[in-house]
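TOKENISED FOLD:
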Amino acid sequence: MRLFKKSRQQVPRFTIVSRLEELVNKQYRKWAKMLQLKTEGCGKKTLMICLCSFCLLYSGSVLYVVLNSFKGNDKIINITPIVIPKHLDTLTSIRYSNKDSPTFQRILSFNNYLDSLTHSASGQVKYDSIVQARPGLVDSLNSVLYSIHSIKK
């Protein structure tokens, strides 16, 4: 009696992976056959000259790139500090966080109006036209409400 029996069932390979492998190998064979046909009429000396010239051109271009990377260029990237505009000061967002302020009340009423538009078919048409005319309006409204609610916490 054996402790570990060999499984008689073979695990099927993934059909997608095997199909992809077949396609890649088929393309490799086609490419190799095409290159073989193109170089059939060339002599050994001609092929060696082509190979040497390719290697020289390639190594020359690599050497050029490497040497230019060590060479000091005048194209230096300057890092400038980020300047926060004065109108985005945190004090202004705190000022609007008051529930009694008229600005906050207008924002909430407009948000409620947009929300009520989505509940009916005719309102949905109005909502879609508003969103189409002002694409970033709903996102801006949500971000303002989120920032106000996050300041309160």
About this structure: The radius of gyration is 35 Å. Helices lie at 15-39, 44-70, 90-95, 102-117, 121-133, 137-152. The mean pLDDT is 81. Residues 56 and 62 are 10 Å apart (CA to CA).
